[in-house]
Structures are given as structure tokens and as C-alpha cells.
Specification:
heterodimer; A: mainly beta; 2 strands; rod-shaped; disordered N terminus; B: mainly beta; 14-stranded antiparallel β-sheet; two-stranded antiparallel sheet
């Protein structure tokens, strides 16, 4: 096992000024979400102050 | 004896669409340029029904029983382009019970034990771009847990000391684990790693040393391991390897938080306060291979200010001693990271001030 407090951050991305090398990623994301909750409970008699898990 | 009950219905729907394109240039004519695309369309809807009854006997004994039904329908169109996509569909259903017993010795002290079944539906992974998905990783199976907990909560005489202690045990089956596709440059899929368990203890306390001085702290210990036949992709080696006995990723062995706050009210409407806090994190691993991790570290923060009825002013410092740590990192050896991982550093020392008015 190898532990290091610092991990490399120094990787180099290819750029247009880098001898004409390039790597381009185009990404289109589209997300829709719908949630609905209905709750029913018995009449509350009093608050015990403790929530059971 | 009295009975209280609660019931509910939960419905949701979700659609996720992703179209991606990677365009990589020729490398000095040695390798040809490469354009690759992927298209994913994921549809998901589900319904959950739950009910819970709480039987209270002589005001001291609480017996709670609950049951939840879940049903989820999922569809996915995955492929290199929308026209070439393959369709998948599946549905998942489960009944998950829960049960707990709590006893209040006095109005200020209670002990409890609880057992609950947990469920996460299976599903489909978006198609990766530029690399093939490893065989069989288009889909993943449902994950199940059994969660057991025993605990005690108390306020001690004079109400100056509060304490909570809890012992827990979590037993996973078909654990859904985020795993990196080898050679993909950081594209992930969810795959069932196998079985795992986690056991631990948490202790939390608050002490009011005087009306203006509060001390607080928590410490937690957990032992979270993959079991026997578990496997996970090692993106640095490009293989699906055995991980039985390894630590679950991003799960520190211990964590702790201690702090103190002093406050002083020179007038009815004005309060001055100063708060100091140290958060300690134990060592943890970046992935299931346990090849690399973060050592234990601590972060100290200070906050102080003055609050009045109509205005407030506050100054704060986070990570006051500029601890350097890397809370998240991914395998990257095949794409050239010398250590095998690329990480993102945590925030350095950060400070600020806030002024405001209330009206």
C-alpha cells in the first residue's frame, strides 16, 4: 500500500499551441426530474421531544 | 397504550439524455486522428408506498414497525449514436421492513435498538465515449442492506451535559460501486462489487460549561471492508480484480470534530460570539484497489462576530493552518499520471467577512 499526502495534479492536456495536438470533448446533457410525495399521519397528541430512529 | 401512525406515497420520474463527442488529433502523423461519439437516453419512473406504526406503552416503551414497497421501471437506449443505440429495459420491486424498540428510562434518557432493510434499484449505465464498456457493464443489479443500530441518548442532571452513543452494523449485498473504465480518462460506471460490511461506533457530546461557554465534540470509528468474493475494476491495471478484505473507498477509519463557542450579550438585542472548531479525518482510500489514499488530516476553522436585532457582522477563516490534502482522486496511470492518480486538492486557507441588515 502506498499513501501520499499529495497526489499529482500535473498532467498536461494537449492544446492547439502544443505542436498542433488537441483533444476536444463536446458533451450535451439534458436532465428532467419530477417528484411528488403525499404523507398521512395520525393526529399528533403531544411532542415527546425524542425521535425514535 | 397509544398508537401513532404515518403512511405515504412517493412518485418520481426522471429522464437523462447525453450526447458526447471526443475529437483527438493525430500525434505527429504516428497515430491517426480519432473521432468517437456516444449517445445515452435513460428513462426511469418509480413509486414507493410506506406505512409505519408506533405503539407507545405506558409512555416509556416505543415499539415501531414499518414497511415500504418500491417499484421502479427503467428503460435505456445506449450506443455510439442515437440511430445505432440498443434498447434495454427492466423493472425492480422490493418490500423493505423496519423495526425498532426504544425505552425511555426517564424523560431525559432513552435507549433504542433498530433493524432496517435498505434497497437501491438496479439500472443502466450511460454509454462511454471512445472506449468500449467492459462486457456486462451496461446494467447493474439492485443493492440490498441490513442496518442494525443500538444507541443511548441522554441529557444529564442540570441539563448541562448531553450525550449520544450509537453502535452500528451495516451488511451490504451486491454493493453498487462507482468504477472507472480502463483507458477511458475518467469515465465511470456503476457495477456490483459484491458483499461488504461496516461496523462502528459514534459518540457525540455537548457541554454547557457556563451560560456563555459551550464545548462540543464527536468521534466516530468505522471498520468498512469488502468481503470474500468481491471484485472491482482496477483502471490502472485494466483488470477486474479481487478486493475482498480491502477498505471501502472514501471511508475514513475515524473522524472527529471538537470545538468551543463563547458568546456574550452586552445588551438585550446584541450578542458577540467566537467559535473555534477542529475537524479530524482518518486515512481513507481513493478506490477499491486500495493502491492510494489520503493520510489523516485536520482542518481548523474560526468564526466570530456580532449579531443585533437589525444587523450582523461576521468574520471567518476556514482551513486556518492551510492543511494540504487531496479529498478526491481518480486512477490515471494509463494516461500518464506519475503517481497513478490525478487528484483535486482541498480548499486552502480561506477567509471572509459578512455584513448584513435584517428587516
Amino acid at each position: 500500500m502506498e499513501d501520499r499526502s499529495l497526489t499529482d495534479l500535473d498532467y498536461q492536456a494537449a492544446t492547439l499551441s502544443n505542436g498542433g495536438l488537441f483533444a476536444i470533448r463536446e458533451n450535451e446533457d439534458d436532465q428532467h426530474q419530477f417528484t411528488q410525495e403525499f404523507r398521512f399521519s395520525s393526529a399528533r397528541t403531544r411532542d415527546s421531544g425524542w425521535r425514535t430512529p | 397504550m397509544s398508537v401513532r401512525w404515518q403512511a405515504g406515497v412517493f412518485i418520481f420520474s426522471q429522464n437523462y439524455e447525453q450526447n458526447a463527442r471526443n475529437d483527438i488529433s493525430s500525434v505527429f502523423g504516428f497515430f491517426p486522428g480519432m473521432v468517437s461519439t456516444s449517445s445515452s437516453n435513460l428513462d426511469d419512473w418509480g413509486v414507493g408506498l410506506y406505512g409505519q406504526a408506533d405503539f407507545i406503552i405506558r409512555d416509556k416503551l416505543h415499539i415501531t414497525a414499518g414497511l415500504r414497497f418500491d417499484h421502479e421501471d427503467k428503460e435505456a437506449d445506449l450506443g455510439p449514436t442515437r440511430a445505432l443505440a440498443t434498447s434495454f429495459s427492466d423493472s425492480y420491486a422490493e418490500a423493505s421492513p423496519q423495526f425498532s424498540v426504544a425505552y425511555r428510562f426517564t424523560p431525559d434518557q432513552m435507549a433504542y435498538v433498530s433493524v432496517a432493510r435498505g434497497f437501491k434499484a438496479g439500472g443502466f449505465n450511460p454509454a462511454p465515449t471512445g472506449v468500449p464498456a467492459p462486457a456486462g457493464t451496461e446494467t447493474y443489479s439492485p443493492e440490498h442492506t441490513w442496518n442494525y443500530e443500538v444507541g443511548h441518548k441522554a441529557k444529564w442532571p442540570g441539563n448541562r451535559l448531553e450525550s449520544t452513543v450509537a453502535l452500528f452494523y451495516i451488511d451490504w449485498n451486491d454493493l453498487q460501486l462507482n468504477q472507472q473504465i480502463p483507458f477511458s480518462g475518467g469515465q465511470y460506471f456503476i457495477g456490483n462489487a459484491g458483499a461488504a460490511n461496516s461496523k462502528g461506533i459514534e459518540f457525540e457530546t455537548r457541554f454547557f460549561a457556563s451560560p456563555w461557554w459551550e464545548l462540543f465534540g464527536m468521534v466516530g470509528y468505522s471498520h468498512a471492508r469488502f468481503l470474500g468474493n468481491s471484485t472491482a475494476f482496477n483502471a490502472n491495471l485494466g483488470i477486474n480484480e479481487a478486493v475482498g478484505g480491502n477498505t471501502l473507498p472514501y471511508t475514513p477509519t475515524f473522524s472527529s470534530n471538537v470545538g468551543t463557542q463563547i458568546s456574550w450579550a452586552p445588551s438585550v438585542h446584541t450578542t458577540l460570539y467566537l467559535r473555534a472548531q477542529i475537524a479530524l479525518s482518518g486515512d481513507f482510500m481513493y478506490d477499491a484497489s486500495n493502491a492510494m489514499g489520503q493520510d489523516r488530516y485536520s482542518l481548523t476553522s474560526f468564526r466570530g462576530g456580532v449579531r443585533s436585532r437589525h444587523w450582523f457582522a461576521e468574520g471567518w477563516i476556514d482551513n486556518a493552518f492551510d492543511t494540504h490534502y487531496v479529498p478526491i482522486a481518480i486512477p490515471y496511470a494509463q494516461l500518464g499520471a506519475p503517481s497513478g492518480y490525478v487528484g483535486e486538492s482541498g480548499a486552502p486557507v480561506t477567509y471572509g467577512a459578512r455584513l448584513g441588515i435584517n428587516f
